[in-house]
């Protein structure tokens, strides 16, 4: 994952709410653009990935035109609330803290957290096995929070602005391991950079619900997104997108 800061296809979009009804011709989808395979910028400069395809499928069901905007992860919720985009589809976990700032749709997939480390090491993922190790994670993520809440007293935690930078330090030997989303780690392990690394232990957290975020009070939009999500699951659109990225269901 690379630390891109582009804004793509920044076409005008409007949201109008009258008497609780949703009315819009266009929506802007906000995402990070640096979290493969969920959101990334391809060789042609387009924002692609599982999150983006799901969001665009929802837009199609809602019969609205959608453009994509990217934002650095650390500022992505403030960007949503500053109306730089209208919905946030960036593999964001539902947390009580985030629910104070935004509203969430129903989950569109369930995440797990799992450690990865070099194949050549017998890294144990309990407290005794991790004592004194240097473990990386992306900042302001469930993985980073889990490490701080559960391992702060035994490991040296290194937090990064992007997942890619955590992987770079792991590959260069500056980290003993990385804790991250299982499906993102799975994608990296398939790459040339990740070929000498593997999952270690079982997932440490396996009920992380991922949803689309909207601004507080955008209830009509949130309800429309929930209805559209039910439709794409029922008609097979979701499965078609899922199968493009994963040989197993993540729903």
UniProtKB/TrEMBL annotation:
Coiled coil: none
Main location group: other
Annotated Solute-binding protein family 3/N-terminal domain residues: 26-249
Keyword line: Signal
Keyword presence, Magnesium: no
Signal peptide limits: 1-23
InterPro entries per UniProt: SBP_3_CS (IPR018313), Solute-binding_3/MltF_N (IPR001638)
SUPFAM superfamilies found in the cross-reference section: Periplasmic binding protein-like II
Location in or out of the cell: Cell envelope
Cross-referenced SMART domains: PBPb (SM00062)
Family: Belongs to the bacterial solute-binding protein 3 family.
Protein name as annotated: ABC transporter substrate-binding protein
């Amino acid at each position: 994952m690379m630390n891109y800061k582009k804004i793509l296809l920044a076409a005008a979009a409007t949201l109008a709410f009258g008497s609780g009804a949703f009315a819009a011709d266009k929506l802007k989808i906000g995402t990070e653009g640096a979290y493969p395979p969920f959101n990334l910028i391809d060789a042609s400069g387009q924002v692609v990935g599982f999150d983006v395809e799901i969001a665009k499928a929802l837009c199609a069901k809602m019969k609205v035109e959608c453009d994509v905007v990217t934002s650095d992860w650390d500022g992505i919720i403030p960007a949503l609330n500053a109306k730089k985009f209208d919905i946030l589809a960036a593999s964001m976990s539902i947390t009580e803290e985030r629910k104070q700032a935004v509203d969430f749709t129903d989950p569109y997939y369930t995440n797990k957290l799992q450690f990865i480390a070099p194949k050549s090491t017998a890294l144990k993922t309990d407290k005794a096995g991790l004592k004194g190790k240097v473990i990386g994670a992306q900042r302001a993520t469930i993985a980073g929070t889990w490490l701080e809440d559960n391992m702060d007293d035994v490991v040296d935690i290194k937090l990064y602005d992007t997942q890619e930078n955590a992987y770079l330090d792991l590959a260069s030997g500056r980290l003993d391991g990385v804790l991250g989303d299982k499906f993102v780690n799975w994608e990296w392990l398939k790459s040339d950079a990740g070929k000498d690394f593997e999952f270690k232990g079982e997932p440490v957290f396996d009920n992380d619900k991922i949803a689309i975020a909207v601004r507080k009070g955008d209830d009509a939009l949130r309800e429309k997104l929930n209805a559209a999500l039910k439709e794409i699951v029922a008609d097979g659109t979701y499965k078609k997108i899922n199968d493009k990225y994963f040989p197993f269901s993540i729903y």
